[in-house]
Amino acid sequence: MRRHLLDTTEFNKDELHALIALGREMKANPAAFRTGLAGKNIVTLFEKQSLRTRVTFDIGINRLGGHAVYLDQQNGAMGQRESVKDFAANLSRWCDGIVARVFDHKTLQGLREHATVPVVNSLCNLYHPCQALADFMTIAENYDDLSKVKLAYLGDGNNVAHSLLITGAIFGTDVTVVSPKGSGPDAQIFNLAADLARKTGAKLAVTDNCDDIRGFDVAYTDTWVSIGDNTPMEAVIDKFMPYQINQALLDSTGIRHVLHCQPAHRELEITSEVMDGPASLIMDEAENRMHIQNAILYTLINQA
Ligand code: NVA
């Protein structure tokens, strides 16, 4: 069966652990994987801006002996010049995998329906699964048992928060989202994560109170305004500032490690003191995007 990664619900706990183990193996022993995607061509499509995603897929694929073709869609959403169906059908005749960053999750569903090669979501309005897997790989490098970790996500209940909730639920990691009222995660996605959590015992919660994350292990944040949202940052600063990750928050909660998917807005969702300080795992996390994505592509394309 051809498999895709539109969100992490498509993999079970053992499979996600295997992806993380493979990502860690690729990081530790790159020479063993130099031909892992030899002769394979992968299209990376972008409707939205990117630094980490573009570079980590491009360089990562090259490290496995494959070839990445970058398609710049920043002038318009897919489906405008030609249908998503035709896009998927044409690309499938030439390439071995499609990685897509899109405005609307439905575009990914269309690609999956009409492509005959694996499709990987490299960010959409609802999910950011490659990021969440890089995050859990980074946590796994620092904690032996993901099911004993308590992760607090502070800020906007966005695509990143959704993927952390779902992936945490599958791994059995407790995840609390701390957001101002009205900016929490999508209720349907939270309920989907809560269903998964019932199987693993993960405790999931949404709160607007930073006192609720005392004793947690890891704090995570992301921009308060995601790509595609035209709200000016100035309009949301007062609402989100109480949820900034700063040294006082680390001191009051006892949280030892900090993650951020980046791009970071220093002195807004996170202070430079914390981002550049000893609690920060943020650059490991950025590096791990490449390793986990390589593990994902290697697994999906070689299985296809
Ligand atoms: N929530 C952010 C993540 C960027 C990596 C966005 O969608 O813009």
Separate helix tally: 11
Helix and strand element order = HEHEHEHEHEHEHEEHHEHH
Euclidean distance between termini CA atoms: 7 Å
Alpha-carbon Rg, integer: 19 Å
Question: Which hetero ligands occur in this complex?
Answer: norvaline
Approximately how much helix is present in the residues? 40-55%
* Overall residue-averaged pLDDT value: 96
What is the 3D shape?
A: globular
Our estimate of the beta-strand percent is: 5-15%
Major beta sheet, specifics?
5 strands, parallel
What's the total count of β strands?
A: 9
Low-confidence parts lasting 5 or more residues at pLDDT below 50?
none
Brief overview, please?
This protein has 304 residues and is an alpha/beta fold. It is built from eleven helices and nine strands. The strands form two sheets. It has a five-stranded parallel beta sheet with strand order 7-6-5-8-9, covered by helices on one side. Strands 2-1-3-4 form a four-stranded parallel beta sheet, with helices on both faces.
